[in-house]
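Q: What changes when glutamine is included in the input?
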Amino acid sequence: MLLTIAQALSWAREQLSSHNVSDDGLHDCAAIDSKILLAASLQREVIYLHTWPEKRLDKLQTEIFKHYMSQRILGHPVAYIIGFRDFWTLRLNVSAATLIPRPETELIVEISLSLDLAKCAKVLDLGTGSGAIALALASEKPNWLITGLDKIAEAVILAKDNATIHKLERVNFIQSDWFSAVEHQQFNLIVTNPPYIEDNNRYLLQGDVRFEPSSALTSGSDGLDDIRLIVSQSKHYLAADGWLVIEHGYQQSDPIRDILTAHGFIQIRNEYDLNGFPRVSLGKVEK
Ligand code: GLN
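A: The predicted holo structure follows.
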């Protein structure tokens, strides 16, 4: 007997709760994950599940849903299972080659849009991954000249695919280990969500993050190796009055302020995430 949408959801929620895979201690993630997985199995939006709770899944949909559920029970992140994640206003393809875009990273987009930049600002996104920040900015600022770079070839391919899907091909994606392949030029804005977790942090041993590439997550014993490098090199690539905007861990704003200060950055400030933690630091280089 094939299940209705309502029955499939309650089965899935029960499964995920009992296997403890979708629990962040804050939200009913088992219910949220069940809905996202079922909607993707039906190739519909979540709202469809609420509109048609009595509708029965067909055989193929049931098979797909069961496959997705078995993956989730093994711990695979929902975004990798269904192949996409919504970020800003964009649905982005994701793969295990890149970090899954996080809601808190939308803070970088908001801050960047609030800066007083030229109409045709030159913008660089360091470690673009799926292209999330670069594409979100491009979707809001048709005149900005945006480059996104990543050292992982698969990430660059993915970001380009996402650009094509959203008709944002004007964003230039290149493969580069930080600035190694960037021609010398001056940007008005450099943004980055670099790896910033300490190598041995226990956080890396649990949940979705176990499936994400460590190259996108960890950066030395204090998590700041890449940020030190980015700050020291960015100053050579920033135009006068250009901004550097960095996402980081909630306990890293003090050391990052010191790094920025040591490299001659001014007007340094923090921005806070929805939980009230300082998660983004920004500053201008004195020229
Ligand atoms: N914010 C991510 C997390 O906490 C880490 C991403 C990163 O290192 N850039 O899982």
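Observations recorded in class: The first strand starts at residue 84 and ends at 87.
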